[in-house]
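Structure tokens please, single chain.
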Amino acid sequence: MRELMRWWLLAAVAGCFAVAAGCKKKSEPESESKVTKANFAKLSKEMGEPDVVAILGDPTEAIEYDPAALEGPGKTARILGTVEAKKVRHLIWRSGSRAISVYLKDGKVEDLQSSGL
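Here you go.
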């Protein structure tokens, strides 16, 4: 009897794990993703951040940094072909193995990169 209860308990626990795994929030299917070659082609330099977000949606990651801090004291900051950039925002959209990176300076697109599109 005790052995039978042990097996039923084991089956119940395994069933709970199976149900929990099935309830896991699923990421956006790649077929519905906005991280596409067509959307990347719509982006252009000097485009404003709101325009980029209108095309790609909210970014997966957003990083803001001061390039001068990366160069060290007494050196001129050079990033994305600019001199003495104040702050740069790096926005990243990811979907599976695909990614789009947008670098903004003063709220305008300074550089665009993609991978896996």
